Design the sequence.
């Protein structure tokens, strides 16, 4: 062992990210502190996850008017609610009066939010509707309680591919601008799709930093080693990189094979797809924490919920055409497809957990990328480093 | 004696309210608080009536109960609440 190697975790130089920002052939990966240091986790929370459009949940969990789902996003209490017109609003789940949590558990609001403490009521649009006894018993107004200034704090949100994205800081570009290239790339998939039901929804609790799940998802380099079953029909050379600098990265395959049922049936295809998708499929991470996949007959969305510096909860949801999602003819296939994906994602667990443990190595320097194979992973590191530098400049 | 009768009625209503709270039955709470409010209103005790009207109104709002509109009307009539600006 080279005991004279520099210990990168002791490097407090503000320029410590400069190696990450080099071109992939010269770059190093993000240093250990981004995986093991709680203080750096807090910096990432602010400058990476709150400053951009992060996924926090799914529209399918609140399908009807009044459905409300409280979500703890990195300690911040939020609540997503379906309004009368079908739109989804996200609010800080905190009463403007005494800071009480408004919605304690998932459920249906028949009318308004009612704070369980002093019963201040808010409409599903966040408007403060009444303030009981605020001017004394039986007096519900007071000249100093200005209801139009005391609505729930609305968090910027946007729903794409059923994922509820939020920008907590409130100053990221509009989502349509932020994700413009992804929206354009997959515009053929802007058509009706539906969740495959309970079997198509699963979670994986992984002892790893959230970024390692992104990094593993972005690259195809590991496929023949970690997913030999997958690559019996999808070889390494059948994959290509997807790299949109500063936006998203991932991988595509040229040999997607549809799942077949016991009598040879396949799921119905999404409509009017171009020939590219006959055997093509793509998998991207829309930075920071949403993993997406599209295939001709089904798609998926994964929200990575960072629970702590070294714990991540992966929320995985599978979708089909409306017919593929609901017809009983496809039930057995939906079960099998969910099982297949679950196997693939579970095969990745030892890798992302192993990389997390590896980052306790005092002399690990962020790692050396393969210029040929690790481009999408480096692109993500580069983006994270850019967000940190940008945020620190604003802070100073 | 009339007051005694009123208090007895209110005691029954309040007992029913506790049962409704236990069941988290917002619609029953609307009905019971409204009845209590009307009794107090008829007795000329507007402060107490508005206390009960307020509770009926809050539970009607929470439950999406159509009673919320007339209850708000009562409270506004007595100067105890306000219509929303964009109504």
Sequence:
């Amino acid at each position: 062992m080279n005991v004279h190697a520099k210990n990168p975790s002791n490097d407090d130089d503000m320029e410590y990210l400069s190696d990450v920002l080099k071109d992939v052939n010269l770059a190093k990966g993000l240093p250990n502190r981004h995986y093991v240091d709680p203080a750096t986790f807090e910096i990432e929370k602010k400058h990476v996850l709150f400053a951009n459009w992060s996924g926090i949940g799914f529209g399918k969990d609140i399908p009807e008017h009044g459905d409300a789902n409280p979500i703890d996003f990195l300690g911040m209490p939020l609540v997503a609610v379906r309004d009368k017109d079908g739109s989804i609003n996200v609010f800080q789940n905190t009463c403007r009066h005494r800071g009480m949590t408004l919605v304690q558990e998932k459920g249906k609001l028949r009318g308004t939010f009612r704070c369980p403490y002093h019963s201040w009521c808010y409409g599903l649009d966040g408007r403060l509707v009444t303030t009981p006894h605020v001017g004394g018993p039986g007096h519900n107004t007071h000249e100093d309680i200005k209801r139009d200034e005391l609505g729930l704090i609305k968090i910027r949100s946007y729903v794409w591919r059923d994922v509820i994205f939020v920008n907590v800081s409130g100053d990221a570009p509009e989502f349509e601008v932020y994700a413009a290239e992804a929206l354009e790339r997959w515009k053929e998939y802007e058509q009706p799709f539906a969740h495959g039901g309970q079997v198509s929804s699963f979670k994986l609790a992984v002892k790893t930093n959230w970024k390692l799940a992104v990094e593993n998802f972005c690259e195809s380099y590991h496929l023949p080693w970690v997913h030999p079953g997958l690559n019996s029909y999808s070889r390494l050379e059948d994959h290509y990189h997807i790299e949109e600098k500063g936006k998203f990265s991932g991988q595509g395959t040229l040999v997607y094979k549809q799942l077949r049922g016991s009598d040879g049936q396949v799921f119905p295809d999404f409509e009017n797809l171009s020939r590219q998708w006959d055997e093509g499929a793509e998998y991207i991470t829309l930075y920071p924490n949403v993993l997406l996949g599209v295939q001709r007959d089904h798609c998926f969305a994964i929200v990575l919920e960072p629970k702590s510096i070294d714990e991540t909860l992966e929320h995985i949801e599978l979708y089909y055409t409306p017919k593929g999602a609901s017809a009983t003819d496809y039930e057995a296939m939906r079960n099998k497809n969910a099982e297949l994906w679950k196997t693939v994602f579970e095969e990745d667990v030892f890798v992302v957990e192993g990389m997390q443990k590896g980052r306790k190595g005092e002399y690990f320097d962020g790692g050396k990328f393969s210029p040929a194979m690790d481009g999408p992973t480096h692109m993500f590191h580069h983006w994270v480093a850019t967000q940190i530098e940008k945020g620190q400049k604003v802070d100073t | 004696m009339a007051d005694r009768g009123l208090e007895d009625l209110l005691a029954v209503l309040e007992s029913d309210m506790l049962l409704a709270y236990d069941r988290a039955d917002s619609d029953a709470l609307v009905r019971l608080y409204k009845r209590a409010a009307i009794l107090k209103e008829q007795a000329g005790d507007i402060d107490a009536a508005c206390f009960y009207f307020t509770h009926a109104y809050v539970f009607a709002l929470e439950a999406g109960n159509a009673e919320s509109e007339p209850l708000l009307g009562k409270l506004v009539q007595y100067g105890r609440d306000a219509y929303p600006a964009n109504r």
Notes: The mean pLDDT of chain B is 93. The interface with chain A takes residues 26, 47-51, 53-55, 57-58, 60-65, 68, 72, 75, 80-82, 84-85 of chain B (CB under 8 Å).
